[in-house]
Specification:
two-stranded antiparallel ribbon; globular; alpha/beta
Length: about 220
């Protein structure tokens, strides 16, 4: 097993999103190699082959649940693991939770790229960076102006609109179910219906399809 750590791992179960983050981080630190993993098992495989990464940038909510437990176990076995959390979750307690779990930083997915880059450099250099969550409905608030669109205009029911809003924030089915007080299977059924109505095949395509549109649940 190699022991050098001149590389970073981006953990995100949406491959397109993970690659986009990796490309941006590569532009921030061109001397570093940035690898992408879609699950914790892939992170472990890379670490077994390459050694411990210099930094792991991990999305908190993956398809099979929270990544915090796996990362906490990894740090218990190897305290030298350094990781930074990212998430689209607006839970105001999330920054504290990931700090308690051993993260060196937290950046919300609504943060501008420049702020994300600064946080990345800070944690990579041995510092800490913890953003507060922007609060419900703030995702993308600092970005370009978007045209509002209602769930009804998209051909969705009010409940599907609520679920789509959470999908656009990057939350997985399990987290959406907990937040709305419904079963995960019900969320899966709604997500399938939403994708069909939007004419797309995946969450990533849905996010791309609605780029430049602001979902308004009040309409």
């Amino acid at each position: 097993m190699r022991t050098d750590s001149a590389f970073v791992i981006v953990l995100d179960d949406h491959p397109l999103v993970g690659r986009g983050v990796a490309q941006y981080l590569q532009s921030v630190e061109p001397a570093l190699e940035v690898l992408v993993a879609t699950g914790w098992d892939e992170v472990e495989r890379i670490a077994a082959e390459r050694g411990r990464p210099r930094l792991l940038v991990a999305d908190i909510w993956l398809a099979d649940g929270s990544s915090i437990d796996a990362l906490s176990r990894a740090r218990a076995d190897c305290p030298a693991w350094v990781w930074m959390a990212v998430s689209g979750d607006d839970d105001p307690a999330l920054a504290r939770r990931v700090r308690d779990a051993g993260a060196r930083g937290f950046v919300h997915k609504a943060a501008p790229p420049e702020r994300f880059g600064l946080a990345f450099r800070t944690v990579l250099g041995g510092g800490e960076w913890f953003d507060e969550t922007p609060g419900p409905g703030a995702t993308g608030a600092a970005g370009p102006r978007a045209w509002p669109v209602s769930a009804r205009e998209l051909g969705l029911t009010p409940r599907q609109g609520e679920i789509l809003m959470l999908v656009l924030r990057g939350l997985p089915n399990k987290r959406i179910a907990l937040q709305l007080g419904i079963t995960e299977s019900t969320v899966k059924e709604h997500v399938t219906g939403i994708l069909e109505r939007l004419g797309v095949r995946s969450r990533v395509e849905a996010i791309t399809r609605l780029r430049g549109r602001q979902l308004d649940l009040r309409a």
